[in-house]
């Protein structure tokens, strides 16, 4: 039972990092990206490559993974400067499809469809985190760190400029804000922080393949943010907990046919999204708080 709880807490922490970093551009910059799973994957693959060929030190693998994701995010940032709304969603969707194709075909780096196996445990100051309890503590600590970084950024002048652009890009530009630079930096920060989750995921499982970084993952992350509440600090965490705990709840419902549990989960996710959009468009934590934080 303890192992199950530790596994659940670890996976919730990793997905919460992803949801928070997606919310950073969705809720505070008004940039709706369907390619967040790509940066998650870049973080995972780069960290795995460094661990297998050089060192499993977190202090080396994670910064390199963040740098790689940050550089790649410029591919997403460029269309963000030229298009908005549904046009940007389409552009990010194209990047998501392209990213998955590269993950599947670049066999010398990603292992192709078979993935990468035998990733060594994460290393901190020469000490391997082989105990699941230690890794759970690490995952929670990284979640707290990402929350702190996000909170600091949002309370800074950069965060205020970001919200101004979200509310009215033309007005922000009229007040002398460098919209292009601010939007680019927001995408870079979001992608680099998402790579932390990717590195943790690779070290935790010891195995990764393209199935973890598909469009389904990007949609699930967006659902976590929307259900919890965009433009709030707590919303993505609440959304993550709900969507990560729902499968566990369904698995304990013995009256449900085991072969249909997956389909029922998808129906529940979709129904929750529809009901929230109708009755609580700001999300569970949003609504009145969305105006306060946003």
UniProtKB/TrEMBL annotation:
Its main location: membrane. GO terms for cellular component: plasma membrane. Keywords: Cell membrane, Membrane, Transmembrane, Transmembrane helix. One of its GO terms (molecular function) is branched-chain amino acid transmembrane transporter activity. It is a multi-pass membrane protein. It is found in: Cell membrane. The chain crosses the membrane at residues 5-25, 31-52, 59-81, 87-104, 111-129, 135-154, 185-207, 219-246, 267-286. Pfam families: BPD_transp_2. This is Branched-chain amino acid ABC transporter permease. It comes from Allopusillimonas soli. The lineage of its organism: Bacteria, Pseudomonadati, Pseudomonadota, Betaproteobacteria, Burkholderiales.
């Amino acid at each position: 039972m303890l192992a199950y709880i530790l596994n659940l807490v670890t996976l919730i922490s990793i997905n919460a990092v992803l949801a928070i970093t997606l919310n950073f551009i969705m809720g505070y910059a008004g940039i709706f990206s369907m390619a967040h799973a790509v940066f998650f994957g870049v973080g995972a693959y780069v960290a795995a490559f460094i661990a297998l060929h050089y060192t499993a030190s977190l202090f080396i693998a994670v910064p390199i993974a963040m740098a790689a994701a940050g550089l790649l995010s410029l591919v997403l940032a460029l269309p963000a400067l030229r298009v908005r709304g549904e046009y940007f969603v389409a552009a990010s969707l194209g990047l998501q499809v392209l990213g998955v194709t590269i993950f599947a075909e670049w066999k010398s780096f990603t292992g192709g469809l078979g993935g990468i196996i035998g990733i060594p445990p994460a290393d901190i100051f020469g000490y391997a985190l082989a105990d699941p309890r230690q890794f759970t503590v690490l995952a929670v600590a990284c979640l707290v760190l990402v929350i702190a970084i996000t909170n600091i950024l949002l309370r800074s002048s950069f965060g205020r400029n970001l919200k101004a652009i979200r509310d009215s890009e033309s007005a922000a530009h009229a007040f002398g804000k460098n919209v292009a630079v601010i939007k680019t930096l927001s995408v870079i920060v979001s992608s680099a922080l998402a790579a932390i989750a990717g590195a943790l995921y690779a070290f935790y499982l010891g195995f990764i393949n393209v199935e973890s970084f598909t469009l389904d993952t990007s949609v699930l992350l967006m659902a976590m943010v929307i259900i919890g509440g965009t433009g709030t600090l707590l919303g993505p965490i609440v959304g993550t907990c709900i969507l990560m705990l729902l499968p566990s709840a369904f698995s304990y419902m013995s009256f449900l046919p085991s072969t249909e549990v997956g389909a029922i989960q998808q129906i529940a996710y979709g129904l929750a999204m529809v009901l929230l959009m109708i009755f609580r468009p700001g999300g569970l934590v949003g609504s009145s708080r969305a105006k306060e934080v946003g």
